């Protein structure tokens, strides 16, 4: 019995080490893109956790002065109000614009990056897709506990067509 536990523990350690090694081979730009895509996927699923995981504890949206906690509350309201009553599916989703969707300017030390993001947010309405926000987002991300947004410096909130 003890031998099986040791073998299982060794297997877990080897897999974790391999996973970490593979992750370290990704460029910072690839990791930043993965965080943003996970945030958009979380929105698509109507789940706040993946979105909030991409925001640092001290995050602030400088264009609205919204903090991470205020974003959390806004997401809760959005998810509560925007689910299809029959299917329970969240009605909104976002996708990075294929033309000019993501620009990443990595700092010299590789610890932070200026990010410019162009996302098209849609709402499903009886089979049709309606653009609810042609979002232009600029801000800074840092490699803290993985890459996270520390601030957004410019966001065109005024062009959103959903209530928050």
What does it look like?
There is one protein chain. The chain has a single domain (29-159), classed as Nuclear Transport Factor 2, Chain: A. The protein is 37% helix and 37% strand. It contains 4 helices and 7 strands. Strands 1, 2, 3, 4, 5, 6 and 7 form a 7-stranded mixed β-sheet that branches. The longest helix is centred in the N-terminal third of the chain and has 23 residues, at 2-24.
Helix content: 25-40%
What is the beta-strand fraction?
35-45%
Alpha-beta classification: alpha+beta
- Write down the oligomeric state: single chain
- Principal-axes geometry comes out as globular
- C-alpha-based Rg, rounded: 19 Å
Please give a quick description of this structure.
This protein has four helices and seven strands; from the N terminus they run αααββαβββββ. The protein has helices at 2-24, 28-45, 48-53, 68-81, and strands spanning 55-61, 66-67, 92-96, 102-106, 112-125, 128-144, 146-155.
